[in-house]
Write a structure and sequence with these properties.
Layout lengths: L8 E5 L9 H11 L4 E4 L6 H17 L3 E5 L3 H5 L4 E4 L6 H8 L4 E5 L4 H9 L4 E4 L15 H10 L4 E4 L4 H7 L5 E4 L1 H4 L4 H10 L3
Parallel strand pairs: 1-2, 1-8, 2-3, 3-4, 4-5, 5-6, 6-7, 7-8
Protein name: Thiamine-phosphate pyrophosphorylase
Pathway: Cofactor biosynthesis; thiamine diphosphate biosynthesis
InterPro entries: Aldolase_TIM, ThiamineP_synth_sf, ThiamineP_synth_TenI
Length: 207
């Protein structure tokens, strides 16, 4: 895959905690440096006010650059804060109801872990994309990983766009790149001194 049009697109995932005094500028630098398809607001907090303020601040960055912004889990905040959609974490379980609530124009994607069945069901229920992960090794949860075999199978059998995310590195990106539509990249870049530079290096592994 050397044609830029055939390369996976980039889907940026915010840190689970962020400083609104500094993060919007760091995000803007990445959006200005590379073509980004979507940003996901992925906060750990349950503080509605904090989430709302973060959504407004990040939307100001993404909307200026015509980049879609989805929020993790919080369906009710999509319309309230003018967001483009939601990223669900429960596979296909709530997808039908969420699609009905948000309508056909909203982006509704869902994380399916390593489950082909959940991914296929989500696709049948009109998910805009399905994400699998983590791709890399992690001690979180039970340590299960989304394998190259899963992405290869999906790319051959299913038309619904697929996102690879979680514990990515250069070698994993190089291996998985021919089989995915998007890479979900977050902590891999935000923990570095220059996220835009780190992102460029990861993109270089795709070609």
């Amino acid at each position: 895959m050397t044609d830029a049009d055939d390369l996976p697109q980039l889907y940026l995932i915010t840190p689970t905690e962020l400083d609104l005094d500094t993060y919007p500028a760091r995000l803007a630098a990445c959006l200005d440096a590379q073509q980004i398809a979507c940003v996901r607001l992925s906060l750990a907090t349950r503080d509605e006010d904090k989430i709302g303020r973060a959504a407004d601040a990040i939307r100001a960055v993404t909307s200026e650059r015509d980049v879609a912004l989805v929020i993790e889990r919080h369906v009710q905040m999509v319309a309230r804060h003018g967001l483009d959609g939601v990223h669900l974490l429960d596979g296909a379980r709530s997808l039908r109801a969420v699609r009905k609530e948000l309508g056909e124009d909203a982006i509704v994607g869902t994380f399916c872990g390593q489950s082909r069945h959940d991914g296929m069901t989500a696709g049948e229920l009109n998910a805009d994309y399905v994400s699998f992960g983590p791709v890399g090794e992690t001690a979180l949860d039970d340590g299960s990983r989304a394998t190259l075999e899963l992405f290869d199978w999906w790319s051959k059998m299913i038309e619904v766009p697929v996102v690879a995310e979680g514990a990515l590195d250069i070698e994993l990106i190089r291996a998985v790149s021919p089989h995915v539509d998007f890479f979900g990249i977050g902590d891999e870049i935000w923990g570095t001194d220059d996220p835009a530079l780190t992102l460029r290096q990861m993109i270089g592994a795709m070609s």
